[in-house]
């Protein structure tokens, strides 16, 4: 199958090209996703790309959060989170 966008230079506003489940931990996410997809709701503790930390952020199933989080240190309440990079 030919990819008409193969030679385009991606920007932050472009759709992601990979999708992976995130496991919480103290280290930086690699790659840092463009957005998060919430498959099951709960709460997450996050650190954004600028280093600002927030605890117990409620997330709702089916939502997309268009923020570049560098860390997700906790996933609670049954939340399932995917990174879109």
| Major β-sheet annotation | 4 strands, antiparallel
Order of helices and strands: EEEEEEE
Q: How would you sum up the global shape?
A: globular
The assigned structural class equals mainly beta
Radius of gyration: 14 Å
Overall tally of domains: 1
- Count of distinct strands: 7
Give an overview in words.
With 85 residues, the chain is mainly β. It has one domain. 0% of the residues lie in helices and 45% in strands. The protein has strands spanning 19-21, 35-40, 42-48, 53-59, 64-65, 69-76, 80-84. The strands form two sheets. A four-stranded antiparallel sheet has the order 1-7-2-5, with no helix packed on it. A three-stranded antiparallel sheet has the order 4-3-6, with no helix packed on it.
Give the arrangement of secondary structure elements.
Elements: E1 19-21, E2 35-40, E3 42-48, E4 53-59, E5 64-65, E6 69-76, E7 80-84
Antiparallel strand pairs: 1-7, 2-5, 2-7, 3-4, 3-6
Give descriptors for this structure.
7 strands, mainly beta, 4-stranded antiparallel sheet, 3-stranded antiparallel sheet, 85 residues
In short:
This protein has 85 residues and is mainly beta. Helices cover 0% and strands 45% of the residues.
